[in-house]
Write a structure and sequence with these properties.
525 residues; mainly alpha; 3 domains; two-stranded antiparallel ribbon; two-stranded antiparallel sheet; 24 helices; 53% helix
Length: 525
């Protein structure tokens, strides 16, 4: 597609591209990318993302999944409580490990653009671990987001519609013809495909009817288990996380969705929605915002929507159109985006080439800054922008160098996920026992959380292969060039030089890095 504007493609533009599409970059990475023509450089990023092997699953992932809370006719009340307690403790550990698992891939994986897009889709097709609860369901959804991140949106949409975590989060598991659940149908139209104002209330109801009859069960061919008691909650009776169609629960009546009429089901719904021109425009707008691109007249959005339509509704051509667009490299699109907590932490680790063993405590720093992986605040995802900054989150941001360079826990960081909604037993003894178990659980969680600590190590030789420069001025200039994509304020350099003089030559890179990571210039991309 022809563009009326050209791109000044140089190392600065390459660094800007990588700050958005790869969390961050080093000067060497930007120079190598800038040595190629822009479109070839973008194709290389996309090809690398497509060719990279997916990360190996955490050790606790089971195929097929096993419900350790499953009850049977002879399961006693005490056994139920004990299984529930043990499962809760295990799920907490697995959630912590899952955040570490993804952080590791973002920090040291071979395809940062793939992880950037996985993060984008995580905020688009939103679910949250505090409602889904099952860590393996969240893991499997993350795999799906990564698998389809650049592929067919139609296939992606079907996969996410029948995804276990999504079905649990938006209550599709028990939607049947007698009482269609509209939660997923509403978000599917408003937040996932068309956007508000581009559908009717009737469309929501008809989509809900079309999606009835789906539940979660064990994979096909799995030997059936004895029935659970009729009074068992769904979480105690579930045998699997695989979508299964029950024809007897499906509404076979005629439905009309966005002008198409028939006995519509899930395949028809995803076909109808994926093929809408408005879906292409809506997705393009979300990506443009996520990548911090200025598009005041919507010209880029329309080009991306056209690429979506002409490619048969594929995602990669849209991303490519965005990453080669003059709009992305225009002055209005540079230094205009407050880094998300994940981008801030991951980018710093990549730029400083830290040795990092992600731990629960390190993962909790992103939560304390307002972005807890696998737990967006609501179905709309993270709002981003200025919402990343508050009195509390800004303090953690400014303490982040202590974590990354000194291995210290940021001041005021508290365990996440403490809220509970429960009814205390009326019996005083039972109430006391429950509260004691909860206190013990909190104590155990705190011990597990702190035992890992923060395991990072800064090795200056990775940044200064020929040795640390002799003068403070040279160290400061090298570190500013290495870490910033925006020019520092005039007084910044002299302040850094004075701080550099106050420490030994060996400590200068860490001292300067610590101060740069706290600067306002480093907080934006």
């Amino acid at each position: 597609m022809k563009r009326s504007l050209s791109v000044l493609w140089d190392a600065g533009a390459a660094a800007h591209l990588l700050s958005r599409a790869a969390f961050a970059s080093t000067p060497r990475e930007a120079a190598l990318l800038a040595a190629q023509p822009l479109e070839k450089a973008v194709d290389e990023l996309l090809d690398t993302a497509a060719a990279a092997q997916p990360p190996s699953p955490p050790d606790w992932v089971k195929v097929p999944w096993v419900n350790t809370e499953r009850v049977y006719q002879d399961t006693t009340a005490e056994e139920r409580r004990e299984n529930h307690r043990k499962t809760g403790e295990r799920q907490t550990r697995e959630r912590n490990q899952l955040r570490c698992w993804w952080l590791k891939e973002m920090i040291s994986g071979p395809a940062p653009l793939r992880e950037v897009m996985t993060l984008f889709w995580h905020g688009h097709f939103t679910t949250a671990i505090n409602k889904v609860f099952i860590s393996q369901a969240i893991y499997e959804q993350n795999v799906t987001l990564r698998k389809y991140a650049f592929g067919s949106f139609r296939e992606f949409l079907k996969a996410i519609t029948l995804d276990g975590a999504m079905m649990l989060y938006l209550d599709m598991e028990d939607s049947d013809r007698q009482k269609p659940n509209e939660n997923y149908a509403r978000e599917l139209l408003e937040l996932f495909t068309l956007g508000e104002g581009n559908y009717s209330e009737r469309d929501i109801k008809e989509v809900a009817r079309a999606l009835t009859g789906w539940t979660l069960d064990a994979p096909a061919g799995t030997p059936p288990k004895p029935k659970a008691p009729s009074d068992a909650p769904r979480s105690f009776a579930r045998d699997g996380l695989t979508a299964k169609f029950l024809p007897e629960h499906h509404d076979n009546g005629t439905k009309t969705i966005l002008g198409r009429t028939g006995n519509l089901g899930v395949d028809d719904v995803v076909d109808i929605l994926a093929c809408q021109d408005q879906t292409g425009r809506f997705l393009a707008g979300k990506m443009i915002t996520f990548f911090g691109t200025s598009d005041p007249d919507n010209a880029l959005r329309e080009r991306m929507a056209r690429a979506y339509r002409e490619s048969g509704h594929a995602i990669r051509p849209m991303v490519r159109e965005l990453l080669v667009s003059p709009e992305l490299y225009a002055p209005a699109s540079r230094s205009n985006q407050i880094k998300s907590p994940v981008q801030l932490l991951v980018g710093a680790c990549r730029q400083l080439q830290l040795d990092v063993e992600p731990t629960p405590l390190l993962a909790e720093t992103t939560a304390a800054m307002g972005q807890e992986l696998f737990r967006p605040p609501n179905v709309k995802g993270w709002p981003g922008g200025k919402d990343w900054i508050s009195t509390g989150t800004l303090a953690v941001r400014y303490h982040l160098p202590e974590s990354l360079l000194d291995g210290k826990e940021p001041a005021g960081l508290e365990p996440i996920g403490r809220e509970r909604f429960l009814t205390l037993p009326a019996d005083p003894v039972a109430r006391r026992d429950l509260l004691k178990r909860l206190e013990q659980f909190d104590d155990q969680r705190k011990r597990e959380r702190r035992e890992g600590g923060i395991k990072t190590r800064f090795i200056p030789a990775r940044l200064f292969s020929e040795g640390i420069p002799d003068t403070p001025e040279a160290v400061v200039d090298a570190m500013l060039s290495h870490l910033l994509v925006v020019p520092p304020r005039p007084e910044t350099r002299s302040t850094l030089i004075e701080a550099c003089r106050a420490v030994s030559k060996a400590d200068r890179p860490a001292q300067v890095a610590r101060l740069i990571l706290m600067m306002p210039e480093y907080q934006i991309a």
